[in-house]
Amino acid sequence: MRVLITGASCGLGREMALLLGREGCQLALTGRRRGKLEQTAKDAGGECLVLPGDVGDYAAAKAGYAAIRRKWGGLDWAVLNAGISKSKNIREFSAETCRRIFEVNVIGAANWLEQVLPDMIQAGSGTIAGVASLAGWRGWPNSGAYCASKAALEILLESARLDLRGTGVRVVIVCPGFVKSELTGGRSKSMPFILEGEDGARRIINGIKRGKKVVHFPWQLSLPMKYLVRPMPDFLYDFLATQLEARR
Question: How confident is the model at residue 247 (pLDDT cuts 50, 70, 90)?
């Protein structure tokens, strides 16, 4: 199976690459840090195509997919995983920080989506999986730009799923909770039910294989979020969110 993973130099992207490499998949790996990306490819084993570059760079995505087509003719899975985060209270809002978060988390996915879709549609098969977040289900203090970017990605993918009905191309939305990675490593606040990276990666891969439209975990966070927090009245949510953030 031919698989693209963006953001494969660390975190969930790296862990997914290691698991899929053990299964004998052909892996196209993207990331900004060439050294770490090459280490992921080495550790994954098998046939890997290393594509260093920023997902927010449209030209890099276009050149990267051209290299994939030359080598393998196309893809079976495209896992749009690359993402960044920065905690900042709205009182210290920076449009530049917000722009950069959206550039990676949303535009980066869109850049690759444009590349992979035509061949998948023509083939009548393929899977696009985008890694959003439970953080995109509602706003959260000190995380406005990140939450907004993940909400945008989820809606983009949901719309794509609707548009692609009947084409044979599947779209999977992945919404993890806290997973140990470089994104979470520097945080001082508590992260309930945090998972090891390999555990999170395995849940994503298994969810895709099972044909799920949405993969969310861990259930201790995702089910309360889905059935209680998302439909919660605003006045109650405002109180709950600010109280919980103050206690973290």
Answer: confident
pTM: 0.94
Apex CA 147: angle with CA 146 and CA 149, to 5°?
Answer: 65
Q: 3-state SS string over 195-222?
A: ECHHHHHHHHHHHHHCCCCEEEECHHHH
Cβ neighbours around 167 below 10 Å, total: 15
**What's the whole-number mean pLDDT along residues 103-110?**
98
Q: What is the Cα 121 distance to its own chain's centre?
A: 22
CA distance 124 to 167: 6
Question: Which of 98, 177, 171 is CA-nearest to residue 133?
Answer: 177
* Residues facing 79 on adjacent strands: 5, 129
Pick the catalytic residue: 58, 146, 227, 237?
A: 146
Query: Where do the domains of the chain lie?
Result: 2-246
146 catalytic, yes or no? yes
Q: Which fold has domain 2-246?
A: Rossmann fold (3.40.50)
Instruction: Kindly indicate the confidence band of residue 190, based on its pLDDT and cuts at 50, 70 and 90.
Output: confident
d(CA 65, CA 220) in angstroms, rounded, equals: 38
